[in-house]
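From the shared-data thread, chain only:
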Amino acid sequence: MSSRPPRIQLLGLLPAILKPCGPACAQPFTNESVEALKAEERRETPAFVRENAERAHGLAEQLLKDFGPRIRIEVVGLDSPRGVWLGIRHRVGKGFAVIVDGNEVFRNSDEYESVKQAVDRAITAHNVPA
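Structure, as tokens:
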């Protein structure tokens, strides 16, 4: 057993503005100096990509609220080398997926309770203290 927190990967086609945020968060820049860049990206980004970003953001917020530092969240774009590999490995396609500790995959699911139960199992397996 490992005491390191389990990794929760949020995988999908995501807006470029989300990517520099890195694994620590799933939200666009909040700095006001990039407001024009954010507006341009919103206009030029397909709706399903924006929806993926909203799902990633909402899910990350809920997971952090429920589990805090007991998990590690990693946002992975399907168009990155790592994202391509994960997409093929877990048969994600162009949709959105949550990969819990490399084992359980939830494709295009809006059912948070199943993801939460999988995260609970992963935390237990890793023996992460509350």
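The longest strand covers residues 7-12.
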